[in-house]
Each structure stands twice: as structure tokens, then as C-alpha cells.
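Morning run. Coffee first, then this:
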Amino acid sequence: MKVADLIEALQGMDPTLDVHFAYGYGDHWRTQVAPEVSRVDMGFVQFSDYHRMDKLVEPDFDEEPEDNLKAVVVID
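And here it is:
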């Protein structure tokens, strides 16, 4: 999803509603949890073979930047 897609999806929503982010908790019951979003920031991700998805990384800008870093909007 791009930022433009998120803006479009939110346009018809009540602006006074709280925002939550849902994900699977990973427990036996396959519970879906939805903590409240507390901030929106820019961040960097790179693909993790271990997790088979992107993971957040803290780039070291004093060294050669890694080719596989991607700038993203992070909802936390």
C-alpha cells in the first residue's frame, strides 16, 4: 500500500475515530489483536529471509548505505 492509497482509504472515515493496527498474536487461538496507533514515522526496512518479510532496520549513515534498504512510512 502506498501513502496515496492510505489517504484514499481514510477519506470516507469519521476523523474522530481512534486508529488501531491489527495483527495475529501468534497464540493457540489465533487471536487477532489491535493495539492503538501511537505514532506515524519514516523508517527503513529490508527483507529478512528468516522472517520472510520486511523488518525495521536502523541504517548506519556513516558507512556505505546498503542497497536493499527501502524507506517506508511506519505506523506504530
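Residues 3-60+67-75 form one domain. Good start to the day.
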